[in-house]
Design brief:
single chain, TIM Barrel, 8-stranded mixed beta sheet, 2 domains, alpha/beta, Urease, subunit C, domain 1, 427 residues
């Protein structure tokens, strides 16, 4: 039998066999101290790296982070020396379709805000096993893009074998898709109608949420609950965000002006490819993050594509670099798995660097950790190695954005869920 994480074996005479105890650092276990030559903190507004650091983990959370020589290890903690290895936060992908079965693209209507992807979740499936081996500890499992509004995604921990353990937040997002795929809905729809229909759906959902807010504020009788519109109550409280499949400048602009500015919904760009970076300055002003991929470059195109997209590029342009060069700070990366395999999220960031994204301040690592955490509103729980956050940690033999680097072990909430010494996963 393959053991997926190292555990202390305790004898239980009454049972006449072995019982598995919790890992040091996990909930119910003791404490864990990890000492590494480099601790990649990757804070969004804070330090990037700590040389020769130590990280204390207790009850699944990060308890302390500090220099190894001056950070005391409490009595009873298991001290693990990692030598020259690096410690990094688990990576986060906000665009994934491999969290379960494939019935996630029900195109009942052009807008379907009540549909939920969490009914299709299969924790521990082979795609998620490989994701863990690639250092991806959190994904947003979302509906497809066959309609303008595919329904609700769910934020999942990848290293869990039960739904209860895997669910980080539900709803994780409201999936919206503009242009491209949904234009083929039934007999085809144009962008003008898609924009009108999205506005109409959002306004109805917002009106529903406001009725609930008024009832809760004045203690009057609550409205009838309607599952079709419940997601908008979460959006209004920023307990979920709109993740928008949007690419090419025209529709990226529509995402920012309609969803963020006009309707005042929390939203992030999801794809943002081709020449979507031309809207980067406005996205930054409107506080709209850009989670980019799977396409990494905007290449010179033929006449008909230029006519369709409005692209003016005359050189190979890195998409992430295009946003960054225009002053956008909240730039992240995604795989659209299985379009790019889930375990290759770090490679997406590496390709962004290859095509001009400035990584001198470790922004490529932030693009797969603290930036998506902030975009998804989970930055108080995940995305960096800071006190109070879940201990989702990677042990690496080098820079995580270097394709030559290997992931040697993975912790999810302080529990070791992957260790190459016990279970090297190949694909």
């Amino acid at each position: 039998m393959i053991i997926r994480h190292s555990l202390t074996i305790l004898l239980a005479a009454a049972l006449g066999g072995a019982v598995l105890a919790a890992d040091p650092g996990a909930t119910g276990g003791g404490g864990l101290a990890l000492r590494a030559s480099k601790v990649l903190i990757a804070a969004y507004d804070g330090p990037a790296v700590l040389n020769h650091g130590i990280v204390l983990v207790k009850d699944g959370l990060i308890e302390a982070v500090g220099p190894a020589r001056s950070t005391p290890v409490p009595a009873g903690y298991v001290l693990v020396g990692l030598g020259k290895r690096w410690l990094a936060p688990g990576m986060i992908d906000l665009h994934s379709h491999v969290g379960g079965t494939w019935d996630i693209n029900d195109m009942v209507f052009l807008t379907n805000p009540g549909l939920r992807a969490n009914t299709a979740v299969r924790p521990g499936n082979s795609n998620l096993d490989r994701a863990v081996a690639g250092g991806v500890t959190t994904i947003l499992f979302i509906p497809g893009s066959g309609s303008n509004m595919g329904g609700q995604g769910v934020l999942l921990r990848t290293g869990e074998e039960t739904y209860g353990g895997a669910e980080l937040r539900a709803p994780g997002s409201l999936k919206v898709a503009q242009a491209g795929n949904p234009e083929g809905y039934i007999f085809g729809v144009g962008r003008s109608f898609m924009n009108w229909n999205l506005r109409n759906t959002f306004k109805r959902g917002i009106a529903y949420a406001k009725r609930w807010e008024q009832a809760e504020a004045t203690a009057v009788k609550q409205p009838d609950r309607n599952p079709q519109w419940e997601i908008f109550r979460h959006l209004r409280k920023n307990e979920a965000q709109v993740s928008t499949h949007t690419q090419v400048y025209q529709v990226v602009l529509a995402t920012i002006t309609i969803i963020a500015q006009e309707l005042e919904m929390p939203v992030y760009i999801d794809h943002g490819t081709f020449d979507g970076y031309r809207a980067a300055e406005l996205a930054e002003q409107a506080n709209v993050p850009a989670i980019l991929g799977p396409r990494s470059i905007d290449a010179p195109a033929g006449y008909w594509f230029r006519m369709w997209s409005g692209s003016q590029v005359e050189r190979v342009q890195g998409v992430a670099a295009g946003y960054q060069e225009r002053g956008h700070r909240m730039v992240g990366f995604n795989t659209d798995a299985p379009v790019v395999p889930q375990e290759e999220l770090s490679l997406q960031a590496a390709v962004g660097v290859r095509y001009g994204f400035d990584n001198s301040e470790m922004d490529a690592l932030r693009g797969v950790t603290s930036v998506p955490a902030k975009a998804a509103g989970i930055d108080q729980r995940a995305g960096s190695i800071e006190v109070g956050k879940e201990a989702n940690l990677l042990i690496l033999n080098g820079d995580p954005i270097d394709p030559r680097t290997g992931v040697e072990a993975v912790y999810s909430r302080g529990r070791k869920v992957y260790d190459t010494a016990l279970d090297r996963r190949r694909w």
